[in-house]
Amino acid sequence: MWDGSSNANLPWFKSHKSRVPETDIRDAEAYEFVENGETRPFVSETRTVHKDIAYEDGSTIDWLREEAAERERKRLIGTQRGLHGLLALLQDSAGMWLVIILTGLGIGVVGAWLDVLVKWLGDLREGRCAYGFFYNQVACCSGLDPGEICNEWQSWSQYLGVRSIFGQSLLQAAIYISLSSTSSIQIVFAGSSAVLVKTYAPYAFHTGIPEIKAILSGYVLDAFLGPWVLLIKALGLALAVASGLSLGKEGPLVHVACCWAYLLSRLLRQSGQNEVRKRKLLAAAAAAGVSVAFGSPLGGVLFGLEELDAFFDDGDVMWRGFVTSVIAAVSLQYIDPFGTSKLVLFQVSESGSTWRAFELVPWVFLAVVGGLLGSLLIKLNTAAAVYRRHSVLHDWPIVEVIGFTAITAAISYLVVFLRVQSSELVANLFLECDPAKGDYHGLCNPTATWANIFLLVLTALVKIGFTAWTFGMMIPAGIFLPTIAIGACLGRAVGLITQAWHRAYPNAWIFSSCPPDPTVRCISPGFYAIIGASAMLGGVTRMTISLVVILFELTGALSHVLPIMISVMVSKWVADAFGKDGIYSTWIAMRQYPWLPAREFRDKGQTAAHVMKAASNLVVIHDDGQGCTIKELDELVKRHTYHGFPVLYGDQLLGFVLRDKLRSCIDSMLAEDSNMDRKCTFQPPSRASGSDNSISDLSPLLDEAVLQLRKDVPLELVVNMFQKLNLRHILFSEGGKLTGMVTKTDIVWLLTAGAPHAGALAEKQF
Amino acid sequence: MWDGSSNANLPWFKSHKSRVPETDIRDAEAYEFVENGETRPFVSETRTVHKDIAYEDGSTIDWLREEAAERERKRLIGTQRGLHGLLALLQDSAGMWLVIILTGLGIGVVGAWLDVLVKWLGDLREGRCAYGFFYNQVACCSGLDPGEICNEWQSWSQYLGVRSIFGQSLLQAAIYISLSSTSSIQIVFAGSSAVLVKTYAPYAFHTGIPEIKAILSGYVLDAFLGPWVLLIKALGLALAVASGLSLGKEGPLVHVACCWAYLLSRLLRQSGQNEVRKRKLLAAAAAAGVSVAFGSPLGGVLFGLEELDAFFDDGDVMWRGFVTSVIAAVSLQYIDPFGTSKLVLFQVSESGSTWRAFELVPWVFLAVVGGLLGSLLIKLNTAAAVYRRHSVLHDWPIVEVIGFTAITAAISYLVVFLRVQSSELVANLFLECDPAKGDYHGLCNPTATWANIFLLVLTALVKIGFTAWTFGMMIPAGIFLPTIAIGACLGRAVGLITQAWHRAYPNAWIFSSCPPDPTVRCISPGFYAIIGASAMLGGVTRMTISLVVILFELTGALSHVLPIMISVMVSKWVADAFGKDGIYSTWIAMRQYPWLPAREFRDKGQTAAHVMKAASNLVVIHDDGQGCTIKELDELVKRHTYHGFPVLYGDQLLGFVLRDKLRSCIDSMLAEDSNMDRKCTFQPPSRASGSDNSISDLSPLLDEAVLQLRKDVPLELVVNMFQKLNLRHILFSEGGKLTGMVTKTDIVWLLTAGAPHAGALAEKQF
């Protein structure tokens, strides 16, 4: 209690955790403060918008406060009368839509440019364009009639003017060997990517989706979205994809899209300092990133909805995400980097448009296998990441990348399906065999069925190993495409087995629903590859509806949506039995971002008291109406980094004050008047003792919307409220007395503590 | 205060609103209650699941309590050990999925059956099938080779055996005149529909979507979902559609789907008494209803998400909605009532697959017109509904239906585009003119362009009038199809104008992007019709993303999604300027269901105090530790119908007790021991005075999760919390003292009070 007699310790805060020695704290004394005749309640408005308080990286935003600030901003615009007000309203709305549209356009362009860059890097092994080093072979030779010879594209020997056949071959061979034959060019690409990432933008490594999930849920990490990260991630991604490592560009594209949107919003001064507004824009950009990565605008929106949990119950945000997605997809289609003028990446042939009930048996088998292997992939990847963290590799990331690229290239050289690019492999595995179109590396050779099955299963298994290690190295890397490739190999293998069985026993009862004519295809192994891919994706990512939509927008296989759904569902069930978290949630748990999984939490009968910090362990501000000095508050703010403090009056809970609000208030008070002994109170003026003008009224600083519950509330409900309301803390009181507090960190810890390796990478320095 | 000395009035509740005379209330006296040696805290568990408390129709469910009960149920299943527990878990999960799958199948079948029934009703004017009265012409003649004459289908004259040419013509003419020629068969259909609805199931009238929105948000109206409503709505809908009135089947199909799901869940004892579980199932069914109505599975899911706001932040529910939608769509496609084996209802020709930038001008014009007319349609419809309510028509609904059907038929006879079925009209308006396919009622006659434009605009205007009156009569009626038809007429008219302009001035600078060859089509009026339809729908329903998805699933016009998006957006903006509510929200406001619009609410600086009922006006339970008698509580519950009461201890707020919990507790206490003077207290045992076993502990009845805020919280935040947390009430306290309370009804009133005619139909007796 504040009675003026206590000393050596500030009487109005009480801490069992303070680690700062208290020797430099002066005795607190009661004394009279002479007001200069003028009453100045310097925080006069009850609703002040604290625009100048920026969050530090690593903190969590206060959703309620940010939303209130945004509402206040809109209200201020709305109150302006006449033409000026109308113009301000228009400008506000138009600015937002401008950012949305430019984001969509930009992401479409970046996505197309990446595809072109990857193609150019691949072609660079062969030669160069006569009229421009930066054209790839297709662009260089465009505009020619079919059959015309392209003279503009020069192989290296032509360019270097080597005329003799012998010299030509020798040079070609030398360049090919040095640049491409086994692995050196791939090593160069991967190494450059790692150097770029390590040197210029460590945040550009990995997929980026775990961080984006955390940011969208309120985590502050602006460094992750900087322009430098944008550039390095895009460049490094192109190099990494061209390096032949087992990785995809899908996840990193979402990160690139978010960086781009953030850059735009800062250039156009749109999101300003408002963190909720910024997050709404980032959600739209993430949807557009998925839209471009898979050519799937609807899938992008649903990904934002399901996986990123990003639309905050707000139809407007979903609509903006949809607009951004569609604009991005349309601009990608307009640029048309693949020359197919189609959004569908892996077009499926229409021939296999009917399916038979007995096929559900191999499909469900595939789904179970996909769930098991997906779960295994997550576990291997986690183990690899933890091992890397604690081994010598942690200090030599570039060497690790170069070494593993060499290993990948060497092993891949042995198996034909590992040697080709993953996207090309997937496209061919999804296609049915058609004699008119030729054979893809012997895949359609009916006499080599068992060899193919062996090769496909081998490819899948090796790729699981590669992917588990690659996803987490110091390069930009997505996990979608490798997962699809693994699943497609397995699916195709199962399809080939079923087909071989059908060929061997065409009259078995199980095949009775097949057409009797043996020349008509009954089993379509290409579609089995799609089922395999969806099962594997279901096991690794644990997505449901957005995955199904992405897959059928990706392949155009609308007629087969029911089996895809079944396989995703079964695979998710199987994988969930071995751990509830998908790959992204696992990484979030390992890095320990303050992110709450959206899944339902069930307690075992505990109440809030189970996680609550009791009032006796909290740092609180005691205010009994006599007030406390600026100095004391200043000490409190300097000593403790908690994001806020409960304020008590006697033993009654007055409210909660945020640390940064308090700090900026103290700073501005001290700027006006450096008297450190000025007194302040948190009591509202009506209740403050008498008309004592000498005491500054700090009650407007109290948080307007702090939630108070009883401590015997079920724990489930507390978790549920944190999940739904984006809270940072809940106070518990009984009869007006503070009994304790729960913060978001407590809940995150509660939900992720069970995950294996939770926090294993938390302290990692990039 | 409870001191035993007050009399003539129950001292521990205080009401300024009681309307029941208080003469029968005995004096309250302090006395000793002799416990029979045995301490029986009859509500022993801290978490009791009150399964036996059913909600009455017209009340609102308590989401937090229902969710807690559902969690508890799952927890109990989870705690069962061994095989038994596993089986229970499997059964629980399998039962839910069985309902989901059967719902999807059933809705697909019902949708297909409705289409067949409508066709049969139409064919009934012509004749009957020889081998079964219930086959329509297509089904009767199926299985024949092309060109073969169908002898199974008999016209009425053949059936009645009239052989002479003269007699045949006469009979045919007589039947045709009596049954179909102008309007009599339509009047018979509409009249039967109205009689069915009025007599057997008044809830089957109208579209049903407003009620479903209210139910999904927590309103209790089980009578609306009964099996009788299902039957009558389906039958009445088929009759109404066949009657030629200006109505669609889309909205009512959603209602039918919900009835079906509810019936199934009761048959399979799945949802049980849990209201949240029931609503999750209904949400999935509603999505499936839209899926079948439009052949649009994704549109169904997004409709559920955007318009019904039905997925409660729960990925699982969305996934179930998706599964149900797809199963429904697939089973509809399998039954194939239209014989096209396509889901796409209005297939658009691919010819118009490119569009020019200048076309944005007429399209934006269409969007503005659509927004204006959509807003007008809502206002006309509201005015018609209010007029009907207060005029003599209110007592003669069947006469009104018959009379208006006659008027519709008579006026429609004059204009060719009004005479045809709306769905047929829309399908043809969406198609481009193709000389090979023939002309549709002169629509493609290039010499009659201006006549066509006049006819189309006339049709649109007349249809607006028809629809505004029809939507709200005592028959099942949807507003989607008429709105599409109005928009398509306008769009086609604008398309024809643009085309005529282009033909007149092919070299004008504005048309410079058109192909120079005049035989190549530059303007596609069919696509203008789609734009018109989306603009009109945007204006009437105010949906965004789900509307766009439904439209492109409906037409297959994926390449044109950008202009459709722009038109929906502009039209919504324009219409929003004349009133924020779409047609469904308007009806909800008129009927005054306790439903909170999801839109953002902005206060003008008010705080919660603005809507709060002050503590002095509340009926509260005072408990100062001496306890109160059962009789007093019983009187309180009998006298007041509020759904709960704050409990005070002295002037400190203890918590909140729900009326039905309290009532069931009192009932069970009285069943055990009819002593009305037994004492109870709401104080937790630890704080209750001493070890007085004679006082029953009612503290477990206190609501576990009542929210307490300070009354100077911004009003916006209070509204926001009601919207996001599905609350029924918030208590306001300061320093532990109750200051007031806000209920959901207060917030609904706050948000809808501004709407014109809010509550105009509230007291309507069906």
TrEMBL record, chains A, B:
The keyword Membrane applies. Its main location: membrane. It is found in: Membrane. The chain crosses the membrane at residues 96-118, 228-247, 253-269, 281-305, 357-378, 398-418, 450-471, 477-497, 527-551, 557-575. One of its GO terms (cellular component) is plasma membrane. InterPro entries: CBS_dom, CBS_dom_sf, Cl-channel_core, ClC. Keywords: Chloride, Ion transport, Membrane, Transmembrane, Transmembrane helix, Transport. GO terms for molecular function: voltage-gated chloride channel activity. It holds the Pfam family CBS. It comes from the Eukaryota. The keyword Translocase does not apply. Residues 706-748 form the CBS domain. It is a multi-pass membrane protein. This is CBS domain-containing protein. It comes from Pycnoporus cinnabarinus.
